[in-house]
From TrEMBL:
<protein>
    <submittedName>
        <fullName>Putative tricarboxylic transport membrane protein</fullName>
    </submittedName>
</protein>
<feature type="transmembrane region" description="Helical">
    <location>
        <begin position="125"/>
        <end position="143"/>
    </location>
</feature>
<feature type="transmembrane region" description="Helical">
    <location>
        <begin position="78"/>
        <end position="97"/>
    </location>
</feature>
<dbReference type="Pfam" id="PF07331">
    <property type="entry name" value="TctB"/>
</dbReference>
<dbReference type="InterPro" id="IPR009936">
    <property type="entry name" value="DUF1468"/>
</dbReference>
<feature type="transmembrane region" description="Helical">
    <location>
        <begin position="44"/>
        <end position="63"/>
    </location>
</feature>
<keyword id="KW-0812">Transmembrane</keyword>
<feature type="domain" description="DUF1468">
    <location>
        <begin position="6"/>
        <end position="151"/>
    </location>
</feature>
<keyword id="KW-1133">Transmembrane helix</keyword>
<feature type="transmembrane region" description="Helical">
    <location>
        <begin position="7"/>
        <end position="24"/>
    </location>
</feature>
<keyword id="KW-0472">Membrane</keyword>
<feature type="transmembrane region" description="Helical">
    <location>
        <begin position="103"/>
        <end position="120"/>
    </location>
</feature>
Amino acid sequence: MALDRWIALILLGICFVYGYAAWFTMDGSLAPFMKRNPIWPSTFPKVLSVVGVFATLVILLGFEKHEAKEAEIDYRRLGDYFLGQALLLLALMVIYALSLRPLGFLFSTSAFLILGSFILGERKWYVMLPVAFIATGTVWYLVQEVLGIYMRPLPGFIGG
């Protein structure tokens, strides 16, 4: 079996576990007044799991293949690819997730966007900084003010 099908099989298992959690475990602890809402907190995870199962089945069953071609990624030559960038981005994602609470959303997300774009090769600081700050501020405003979900904007030691 090709590498893309193995990855799709692994993702199918993840989507099944995620879907099970979304369909059977998330709604049990809802407050009674929320059970009458048309959209529940589990609505997006349910849709995401169904789309994920559908997409991985398309890959597993081979519907996306039009013609036979050689593999785009040769797993025997992983050293020839930008593996360092990928591993650095994964490490940055973990650090970002761990720093959200202690450092606050605004600082953590801005730093993640700036460092992530730097790792990917962007060197124009006059582009990176405004884009990161505007995107971070916009997302924080939408989540905090429009959706009404509290996110700690500043580090805890500053008063966030």
